[in-house]
UniProtKB/TrEMBL annotation:
Name recorded for this polypeptide: ATP-binding cassette domain-containing protein
InterPro entries assigned: AAA+_ATPase, ABC_transporter-like_ATP-bd, ABC_transporter-like_CS, P-loop_NTPase
UniProt key word Magnesium: no
Source superkingdom: Bacteria
Keyword Lipid biosynthesis belongs to the record: no
Transmembrane segments: none
One Gene Ontology MF term: ATP binding
Length: 329
């Protein structure tokens, strides 16, 4: 699915600037003497899912607030379909749906009444409002709980109802700010199922997270932010291509590897480095295709692997390469 979406995004890019739905230009925002956002720029094309990735405090939520028109930037601008989204630009802001990090629900109203309230704020009424409430409840898997109050819901169900509220007015752009914080894996997968349905329908998504695996699953374009600055802005494949090692091989040998053989192993074609001592080795590879050659080389020298496992590069590796630290440091 991700490959197909990425190809679609590339085709959109060939179509020119008209295919850009969201454009963030040189945003800056400071609180006191601290720069929360420092010259951030990126784009999202129609039907694209952009993962906005960075550690807690990187500036993701501030950027989301500026895009949604909740916060004013100190400098820079945000455009949707070429029109500004700042405070006061209500027509443009109606093209955006926001799922905030904090739940925005009324616990003493039923799920359906919550949606009716939010729908009315978007100007929906009558049959149009009823139809949209039914559609979004079905999309997030809560149709059978429409009459129940969120106070009786799990954390994951509340998150899904929050998503439903953001979709009532059929936004062209849906922004999700850490939508899986504090929920169980089953609820997280239910949210992913909803978002993947939106992707298939062509909705443009901006998904903020500090969980690598979520962005790897959903995004066909990734923006990595740290200290309010954009460090990388590219497709997953292009980000992985930056790494000196795009795969890894973990090997456990029957006995310790001699120092001379370890040094020779590190010089093999396709090997980007060797870590570990004794019989357990972590071998970084330029790509996974070199794993078989490395295992054969070890066997030819009497080094018997009793266990081995391969792994591909991860976004964590990209972030480490860019910043010198892991995402959760």
């Amino acid at each position: 699915m991700r490959v197909a979406r990425q190809e679609a995004g590339q085709e959109a890019g060939q179509g020119g600037a008209a295919e850009v739905l969201l454009e963030v230009r040189n945003l800056a925002k400071a609180y006191g003497g601290r720069r929360a956002v420092d010259g951030a720029s990126f784009q999202a094309r129609r039907g694209q899912t952009v993962g906005l990735l960075g550690p807690n405090g990187a500036g993701k939520s501030t950027i989301v607030g500026i895009i949604a028109g909740i916060l004013d930037a100190d400098a820079g601008e945000v455009l949707v379909d070429g029109r500004p989204t700042g405070t006061g630009h209500h027509d443009t802001r109606r093209r955006i749906g926001l799922v905030p990090q904090e739940l925005a629900l009324y616990d003493d109203l039923s799920a359906l009444d919550n949606l009716k309230l939010f729908g009315a704020l978007y100007g929906l009424k009558g049959a149009a409002l009823a139809g949209r409430c039914g559609a979004v409840l079905a999309l997030v898997g809560l149709a059978d709980r429409a009459r129940d109050k969120p106070a009786t819901f799990s954390g994951g169900m509340k998150r899904r109802l929050n998503i439903a509220a953001a979709l009532l007015h059929e936004p062209a752009l849906l922004i999700l700010d850490e939508p899986t914080v504090g929920i169980d894996p089953q609820s997280r997968n239910a949210i992913f199922d909803t978002l993947e349905a939106l992707q298939r329908a062509g909705t443009t998504l901006v998904y903020t997270s500090h969980y690598m695996e979520e962005v790897e699953r959903l995004a066909d374009h990734i923006v990595i932010i740290d200290n309010g600055r954009v460090l990388a802005d590219d497709s997953p494949a292009a980000l992985y291509a930056r790494l000196p090692a795009r795969a890894a091989l973990h090997v456990e040998l029957a006995g310790p590897l001699a120092a001379a053989l370890a040094a020779a192993l590190a010089q093999l074609p396709g090997v980007a480095g060797v870590q570990g001592t004794g019989a357990a080795l972590d071998i970084r590879l330029q790509d996974g295709a070199h794993a078989i050659a490395v295992l054969d080389w070890l066997r030819e020298r009497g080094q018997v692997p009793v266990h081995f496992a391969t792994a591909r590069a991860r976004l964590e590796d990209v972030f480490l390469d860019l910043t010198g630290r892991t995402l959760r440091d």
